[in-house]
Amino acid sequence: MFVGRENELKILNRVFSSNRQESVLIYGRRRIGKTELIKKTIEDFEGEYIQECKYKNSKVTQTVVDQEIERVKNVNMSCYK
User: Fold this and answer.
1) Model confidence pLDDT, tens digit, residues 1-37
2) Rg of the chain, C-alpha, whole Å
3) How far is CA 25 from the centre of its chain?
4) Where do the H-state alpha helices sit in the chain?
5) How far apart are the C-alpha atoms of 49 and 7, rounded to whole Å?
6) Do the beta carbons of residue 79 and residue 72 sit within 8 Å?
């Protein structure tokens, strides 16, 4: 069962249905359903997507998140926080 992620699903569905190239950074503690959120979002998606896992063995701090957001903005892509 997939419960309690309506807001996140809404944001991801808006991104995936956009005509623009966009990027999404999903982060959080382990075992909270990040991968399941992605799987649920792309169930009916017919476009192309890239799923990348970074920082698997190191702590993701707010500084790291801010750096990733800047990288996205530097290539003129939208960023949702």
Assistant:
1) 667 888 898 988 888 888 887 778 788 888 888 888 8
2) 13
3) 4
4) 6-17, 34-41, 62-74
5) 20
6) yes
CA nearest to 4, candidates 44, 43, 32: 32
Instruction: Quote the crossing angle between the two packed helices 6-17 and 34-41, to the nearest 10°.
Output: 50
- Give the pair of three-digit tokens for residue 71: 């990288």
Distance between CA atoms of residues 38 and 8, nearest Å: 10
| pLDDT at 77 (0 to 100) | 66
Question: Is 62 in contact with 74 (CB distance < 8 Å)?
Answer: no
Mean pLDDT of the chain: 78
Cα(10)–Cα(69) distance, rounded to whole angstroms? 20
Contact status, residue 77 vs residue 23, Cβ threshold 8 Å: yes
Count Cβ atoms within 10 A of the Cβ of residue 75 and give its class: 0-12 exposed, 13-18 middle, 19 or more buried: exposed
5 vs 47, which has greater pLDDT? 5
